[in-house]
Amino acid sequence: MYSNLKRSERSLPYYLLAPAVAILLAFTIYPLVVSLLNSFSSLNLSNPSKNRFVGVANYFSAITDPYFLTSVRVTLVYTLVVVAIEFVLGFFLALLLNQRYRGAGLFRVLLLIPVLLTPAIVGMVWRILYNPDFGMINYLVSLVGIRPRSWLGDLNTALPAAALVDIWQWTPFMMLLLLAGLRSLPRDPFEAALIDGASQLRILIQITVPMLSSVITVALLIRTIDTLRIFDQLYILTSGGPGNSTETLSLFVYKAGLKQLRMGYASAVSYLMLIIAIIISTQLLRLTAKRS
Q1: Which of 11, 54, 123, 196 could form a disulfide with 236 if both were Cys (CB 3.0 to 4.6 A apart)?
Q2: Domains of the chain
Q3: Average pLDDT over residues 35-60
Q4: Do residues 169 and 122 make contact, with C-beta atoms less than 8 angstroms apart?
Q5: Chain-wide mean pLDDT for the chain?
Q6: 5 falls in which pLDDT band (50, 70, 90)?
Q7: CA-CA distance, 257 to 21, in Å (whole number)?
Q8: How far does Cα 207 stand from its chain's mean position?
C-alpha cells in the first residue's frame, strides 16, 4: 500500500501537466505538422479535390517569385531600420531615466502607454493621423513649411511612415528592458572608473555596454523576431500598399493563403519565413557572443 501511495505521488505531476501538454499538442504541434505537410502539396482551397504531393516545388516557386523576393527585401529593411532606431532611442531613454530626479517615475509611466495599446488600435489611430484630408500629421508639417501629402499612399513615404508607428509604440518596450538591465548593474566598476578619471563616454562604451551585453541581446532578439512577423499594424495602415511597397512576409502569406486560397504555397512561404528568422536570430546571437 505504501509503495502504491509513493507511485501515485510520483505520477501526480504528470497528471497535472497532461491537460497543458494536450492543449500544446492540439494548438501548436499539430498545426505545425499539418502546415509542413501542406507545404509539400498543391493544396488550393478553391479546388481541394486536386490536392497532390509536389515535393519542394512550392519552395522553388517562392524563391523565384519576384513578389516574394520583394516582400523579403521589405521585411529585412523594415526590421533593420525599426529595431536599430528603437534600440538607440530606447538606450538613450534608459540612460536618462536611470538618473535620480523628480518626476522620473511619472515620465516612465507615460512613456509606457503606447506599449499597453494593441497594434490594431495603434494602426487605426495613426491611419487617422496620416489621413491626407483631415489628419493631424499634415497640419503639423504644414506649420514648418512642408507640403501636405498622402503619407501612406505614396511609394516613397509609405514604408517610413509605417516604420514611425512601430518605433513610436515599441521604443518604450526596448527602454524598459534596458532600464531594468541598467538598474541591475553593480556600482563598484563605475565608482572605480570615476576615481581613475574616466569620462562618461568612456564609461558608457567600455563598462556599461559590455556589462549590458546579455540584456541588449535579449532586447534585440525579442524585437527582431517580433518585427519580422509584423502583420496587424501594417495591414490596417497600408494592407501592403501602395503596390507592394509595404508588403512584408506576413502580409504576403496572408494574401497567398487567405485571398488567393493557395494554402500549399502559403505554407511553404511560412516555413521560408521561419528559416529567415532562425538565420537572423542565430547570427545576432553569434555576433553578440563574440562582442561579449
Answers
A1: 123
A2: 67-291 (1.10.3720.10)
A3: 90
A4: yes
A5: 88
A6: low
A7: 29
A8: 28
